[in-house]
What we know:
The complex is a heterodimer of chains A (540) and B (550). Chain A is α/β, with parallel strands linked by helices and 540 residues long. Chain A has helices at 3-22, 66-80, 84-92, 94-99, 146-159, 197-208, 234-239, 250-261, 278-283, 311-325, 341-345, 347-355, 362-379, 389-392, 410-419, 441-445, 456-459, 479-483, 486-495, 503-519; strands at 41-50, 57-60, 108-113, 130-135, 138-143, 161-162, 168-177, 183-189, 214-218, 266-270, 288-293, 296-304, 330-332, 383-387, 402-405, 423-426, 462-469. In chain A, the strands form 3 sheets. In chain A, strands 10-9-8-17-16-15-14-13 form an 8-stranded parallel sheet. In chain A, strands 1, 2, 3, 4, 5, 6 and 7 form a 7-stranded mixed sheet that branches. In chain A, α6 links the parallel β8 (183-189) and β9 (214-218). Chain A starts with a helix and ends in a 21-residue tail after the last helix. Chain B is of the alpha/beta class and 550 residues long. In chain B, the strands form 3 sheets. In chain B, strands 1, 2, 3, 4, 5, 6, 7 and 8 form an 8-stranded mixed sheet that branches. Chain B: This is Beta-hexosaminidase.
Amino acid sequence: MVEGSRKMVSLLFVLSLFSALSAAKLSVTPTKGVPWPMPMDYKTTGKQNTVDAASFRFTTRSVECDILLDAYVRYREAIFGRNADRFHAMRQSPKFVQMFSQEGDIGEVSVDVSKPCQGSYPSLESDESYSLSVANGQVMISAQEVWGALWGLETFVQLVYKSDTGEYVVNDTIISDKPRFAHRGLLLDTSRHFLSTRILLRNLDAMAQNKLNVFHWHIVDDQSFPYESMAFPELSNKGSYFPESQVYTPTDVAEVIEFARLRGIRVVAEFDSPGHTQSWGLGQKGFLTECYSGEKPDGSYGPADPTLNTTFPFLKQFFAEVASVFPDQYIHLGGDEVSFTCWQSNPVIKDFMQKMSYGTNYAKLEGYYMQNLLDIINSLKRGYIIWQEVIDNGAKVRPDTVVEVWKGGWEEEMEKVTKQGYKTLLASCWYLNDISYGSDWTTYYTCDPQKFNGTDAQKALVMGGELAMWGEYVDDTNVLSRLWPRASAVAERLWSPKDVNFPLVAQPRLIEQRCRMIRRGIPAEPVTGPGTCPVEYREP
Amino acid sequence: MTGGTMKMLLFLFWGFLFSAVSQAQEIPTAPSRGQPWPMPMSYKAGGQLNTIDAATFRFATQGNDCDILREAYIRYREAAFKQHSERLLVVGPLRFRQNNLRFMQQLRGQENALLQQLSVQVSTPCEGRIYPSLESDESYALDVSGGQATLKAQEVWGALWGLETFVQLVYTTNSGEFVVNDTSITDKPRFVHRGMLLDTGRHFLPKRTLLQNLDAMAQNKLNVFHWHIVDDPSFPYESRAFPELSNKGSFYPGSHIYTPSDIQEIIEFARLRGIRVMAEFDTPGHARSWEEGQKGFLSECYSGGTRNGMYGPADPTKNSTFTFLKEFFTEVASVFPDQYIHVGGDEVNFTCWQSNPAVGDFMQKMGFGDNYAKLEEYYMQNLLDIINSLGRGYMIWQEVIDNGAKVREDTVVMVWKGGWQKEMANVTKQGYHTLLSSCWYLNLITYGEDWKTFYTCDPHAFDGTDAQKSLVMGGELAMWGEYVDDTNVLPLSWPRGSAVAERLWSPQDVNSPVLAEPRLVEQRCRMVRRGIPAQPISGAGGCPEEFGGN
């Protein structure tokens, strides 16, 4: 579809919105069967195809694999509901067919994937493009790789809606789609508060419903260490809130990774150091710097201690395990908010500073720590993502490092980071834990990661962005409702073309997306004022 | 317990908290153990423990017995022991046996006294579907000492709060035993009206969630559910006399309505917990959804001499308006047993009235000139006469008074706008009873620990005589529904609502957020254990039992 026709579709939305407003009913009328995030090219007509629930099936045209087969089961349920299979069986009973023999137009969805996909894992280089056509009862999804096919299935399911007479219908549609950015992430912080595996899995489902493809798992921090290490079990035994119930066992972690993989989502683990590591110190004595008051240690601890010859062997062994547990090509190493006051108080550190000729420049000590850590990750053949401070403090890092920008003044920072030739990710605009009253999704929606001064080559280094849900005030009780559908706004920004950026036009579609997520089991909260969903949320 | 003892106890909390804070930056606040929320008027606890055997412990009525007590015993047994004991079983039979063994050893060794029952004495008969009111006696006394526990109350409502407090005193030791410290409590609320407003007009809230919220209210000794049941966007109340109101005015008449039996169930559920259900049917503004099922109720708006298809407030010029209201509120009074009906009266916009020629004629006829506030007063006065004739008291939003309408002297005025100190001074000077809500709009979310602002707002902090202050009956927290529905209403309400609950129950000088925080953290985890998704409100931390859905 050409640019022009998408604009026409947008215009139609605007008109339908205004007609709804003038009709005295106060709520905005949601769209019906329109996808979120908006595809690159999307052309649709009013011509409806009914879905034949009795015979409906997904058919693989060429390459078959575990990922597709699992998706077919999920997406069948997403269309027809939890009791899809029982309903299916009932529909096929002769008596039922006799009573309600009503042929639907669409009996099958053909899925055509070019490259073999059995057992594969997504990456930054994954081809996520797909094309989808619905016409005359024929549905075809084609993709180069299975990852594109997954998104195509998600889109197809979003096109299905219930007609006024209660039938499942899909309008004639032609879509050609691919993401604007390769890295579309969501950060959860499982250290400030523990989040149960059950919630992490449900959140992955919600991410897939919005075509987000990276779960950035900020798994440990100062407050707790819920990651159960096989090599260093004391880390979680001592460092978690409740070692019996609030840890992620190797089985839990493997389950999360597999669940994500089947949805085309990468799991990038973050083990933040040398700051944000108080909880490490509980199970790994001697890892942290002892802080001094006057001549004596005062019992408190600072960042990791780069002067000890035990620190880096420990990190090497620990990250070797991390690399074996998390298959993703990237590991997030943190590196943010390193406070120098404790280092400054410690006499051994001061001696080391002298020996290394750092003077009083503690940023150099931080650089020394990070360089050693990056070498370790390098030797494990993984790429790394770091928070912006590492670069800000002048540490030299590998040219393929990805720098995540999270502070205010991100436009200057992105300009600076890309000028140095680093790949970058934007998070500053999307701290969703930082709540405020009302429709704040419009602010998230209108922040564009390429809106900084720079050449095309610099802009091309922007891999995408991440929304963050830091955990100070978030746990199982509220994390999903606080995330969704506010995070959907970010998801569309990172997937859809740059010019799909008008909140008023997006709103009717966002309302449909929220209600669709609720129907599929996600407690997505209201974000557009008074209104309703046909099916309200039920705790599963 | 004297003020002094309470202060000493607070001092202990203080020390405990600081030792935790100095350990390391950002270390979670250590929760209290077995401390009640809201803080009782007088509370004395000793270090001596009483052990409870969950299998044999019982509540024993001495004297007056009734349905309210019997139902409460079932609930509170579960609240005290059920999920605790499941947890013990979950961690494995071996540990459970060990706990049991240790428990038996302790019994033999007589280390702790064994508490076998709580005896409950209510002085006034409570059988026969009695309903709580503004005049209910909610006081109680609770003593636990040397294996004996007694709860005494004048009325059953006090006994209910005493049971809640008792269950909050029970905690598990590190070895998994149920224990209660020796405790002596004399308690009664500072304010008689401790309300919570939910708005089911802007988003629908299913009955199941309303019931769950009543449980949460009882856990915090809130005693009035202010049900803002209908508003501009929808009319989910199913009226028997006017079924078209919800047929046409609800979001989905097949699913998004409250049937008469739903409402009965909610009122009964609340009654059994000592909670009044006060319905609000807001008019003449905020009534857009009424028009869908009651044609001609609202004023038609005009643009340049012709109707423009929009509607304004209720139309006070027609006789049919008040005939309808009389029949409608007669039904409301028969459905809701509470002595008060909230009739709204807020945010009446005059522009539509001003545009309507028939309204203009009526203004002339009545000699109101251009003063549309007089028209509003005329409407309200007629409505209040109707409620009066039904033998009910009424609550109104502050604008009715602000606009100078004369109302019955026993009217309760709810203050919700900014500048509440002046307004409360003004309203009480005129001799009206009043309720404060301005400080507690919990739907207005901000990042971080906003409960501290709610906690430190005192409804008596305005300039006025003692007589004026005594007209303050309490307050209400409000969870308006623009951005709230079944997906988020409970975590947004709790435990932020708990901060308001303590302000309205506990003595005025129990007002330091720093002292309250460890107890509030315990209260949150207790609510989570009892099935309420109460969200974190004091930074990083963990509850022993996380929320697991319903």
